[in-house]
Write a structure and sequence with these properties.
By secondary structure, the chain is of the alpha/beta class. Helix content is about 20%, strand content about 40%. A five-stranded mixed sheet has the order 3-2-1-11-12, with helices on one face.
């Protein structure tokens, strides 16, 4: 069983509230637009981190993190990317791979809009944690927390970390 904290779009922002939730998780997953690598370096000192780079990330972030990160967590096939779209409206460079080889859990960021949708057509769970940072049009900073237990994704929680 693994407790996962999922965040995205930090845009160089990390604070004690985010770190409180980091400390409660087993692994941290970052869905891109990290900004300054101080964010991920701080997290990595505390917990294992998996991530991808986003469209605002510089060459340093792109050298450290991939565009797509696909891996197994316990019995769950996970795919994280920054710009992925949504069920029925996946990004063109994503939709063919999802149709041929769908993961069980597809995660993206970019929109700053928290959404969790079950894609019936591709039999996968889509998550976007919204934005944990202070840059962007969103009004409330958000993250997601959940548990992966064997091949089950459960105990999903929305974390609102306050107004930006």
């Amino acid at each position: 069983m693994k407790k996962i904290l999922l965040l995205s779009d930090t845009h160089s922002h990390i604070d004690v509230t985010i770190l409180k939730y980091v400390n409660q998780a087993d692994e941290i997953w970052h869905a891109g637009d990290i900004g300054d690598l101080i964010v991920t370096d701080t997290i990595k000192k505390l917990k294992p981190l998996r991530g991808v780079y986003g469209n605002i990330d510089d060459n340093q972030a792109r050298m450290e993190f991939p565009l797509h990160n696909r891996f197994m967590c316990e019995g769950v096939d996970v795919w994280i990317t920054h710009i992925g779209g949504y069920p029925g409206k996946y990004s063109p460079n994503i939709k063919d791979e999802i149709a041929v080889n769908p993961p069980k859990l597809f995660i993206c960021g970019h929109s700053h809009i928290l959404k969790v949708i079950f894609d019936k057509k591709n039999n996968l769970l889509h998550m976007n944690p919204g934005a944990a940072g202070k840059s962007g049009f969103h009004q409330v900073r958000t993250m997601l927390r959940f548990v992966i237990d064997g091949d089950k994704i459960k105990d999903l929680e929305i974390i609102e970390i306050g107004k930006k």
